[in-house]
Amino acid sequence: MKIKRGIEFKEGSFLENVNCYLQEAILKTNLDSRFPKQNIGERIMIPDRSVENKISLKMDDGSTRLLVGSRVQHNNNLGPYKGGIRFDVDADLQHTQALASNMTWKCALSEIPFGGAKGGLVVDPRILSESELERVSKGYIRAFADILGPDKDIPAPDMGTNAQVMAWMRSRYEDIYHGVISPGIVTGKPVGFGGSHGRTQATGFGVVFCAEELLGNLKNKTIVIQGFGNVGSHAALLAHRKGAKVISLIDPYLFGGGGALFNSKGLDVERIFKNPRDFQGNMAAEDAICIKCDILMPCAKESEINAGNMKKIQAKVIIEGANGPLTPPAHNYLLEKKVIIAPDIMANAGGVIVSYFEWLQNKQGEYWDESAIISRLERKMKRITKKTFLYAKKNEDMRLTAYSIAINAVAQAKNVIGAQ
Ligand code: NAD
């Protein structure tokens, strides 16, 4: 099957890749002709605000390191800006712009009243001590406090940050604003400090709910998962508990050896989840991602499936737990090979959906139990997957469909149409 594209699908930077998908959806939705003179196409590609700040980090040995942090507020037509903070060596401004844009589309597709944002800090958190991580997390919030707020811009965890980091950030924010209690300033906090049950596992569980909606019962389905961090480990756990055979887990930073665990009969995910570092890889990571399987869940970083390895991929279905794991040529090639691809802005929306539940609970000052949250999450994930899949029937491209639905929602929000 040859797919006719509105624009050229070439390998680019992460931001170029996101903009490539976006441009095609802008063309498909005829935005520029539907809203003439408003230049909506361009306006929804360029972020509302991109800020970089220098953050100085006092190291335990008394020396000081200067780091660069950023916050990108992409679009708030549908509600306050919302998006995680990533601590990673690649988390520069351009990267953060790509992630912020995807947050806008993810929230719109999920029908939650948030806009899109993202934060980045260029650092390898694995080399920081606990106290250095605390100081830099508080330093990040100090640097951006004036543009953040529970009804303005609400961060959350992403790669390299977690619930503890969110707790430090909330407490620093409250210090800056003279002790005004503001649990809704960040989501993904620890339970007991304004956090919500179910937030930690939300994204990974959401990936599995999406797979179930597309494929039905997962019993005995073979699954390969790349990345065994927050998203990948919880996806593996739930898939395993539902009777799927998780045959490979790929994470060179955890497993050593070749970087991937493999067992054709299915891995003991419960044991691996408890102590992943006790397990030694028995397959090369680059081979494991190409194993024949029913479902591949890339849950690590962007552009991991690209022009270099796309021809070796043998999965029938790909569920994007990570943001941007497929480059445009890989996406196009695999679609032409009839692989079903569940795009990131749909498949990994579980995190921001439960972040929204957390924010609501903070506002109401009452807390819901875990089973209520997980069943609400399941309903929502299955609904957005079904909606996207149904609309995609004609062009068989769920990514183009998901972006188109989201762009329509954002463009139609009254403050865009009203603004001349
Ligand atoms: P994390 O830091 O908890 O885990 C990432 C894992 O990937 C780590 O264990 C790391 O060792 C591993 N990894 C890194 N490079 C790898 C590679 N090349 N091959 C295999 N493994 C590799 O991060 P996370 O929160 O799980 O996020 C993973 C992805 O999911 C990111 O793209 C993130 O933006 C996306 N995401 C996360 C959330 C969330 O709620 N945490 C929500 C939506 C999307």
Structure description:
With 420 residues, the chain is an alpha/beta fold. The chain folds into 2 domains: 222 residues, NAD(P)-binding Rossmann-like Domain (Rossmann fold), CATH 3.40.50.720; 136 residues, Leucine Dehydrogenase, chain A, domain 1 (Rossmann fold), CATH 3.40.50. The protein contains 17 helices and 12 strands. The protein has a 7-stranded mixed sheet, sandwiched between helices. Strands 1-2-4-3-5 form a 5-stranded mixed sheet, sandwiched between helices. Helix 12 links the parallel strand 11 and strand 12. The mean pLDDT is 95. The structure holds nicotinamide-adenine-dinucleotide. Nicotinamide-adenine-dinucleotide (NAD) binds next to helix 8 and helix 9.
Overall CATH architecture of the largest domain: 3-Layer(aba) Sandwich
Query: CATH top level of the largest domain?
Result: Alpha Beta
Please outline the major beta sheet: 7 strands, mixed
Question: Care to count the β-strands?
Answer: 12
Q: State the strand order across the main sheet.
A: 9-8-7-6-10-11-12
Global morphology: globular
Low-pLDDT stretches: none
Bound molecules: nicotinamide-adenine-dinucleotide
Distance between the termini: 42 Å
Keywords:
7-stranded mixed β-sheet, 2 domains, Rossmann fold, 5-stranded mixed β-sheet, alpha/beta, 420 residues, binds nicotinamide-adenine-dinucleotide
Short summary:
This protein is α/β, with parallel strands linked by helices and 420 residues long. Helix content is 44%, strand content 16%. The protein contains 17 helices and twelve strands.
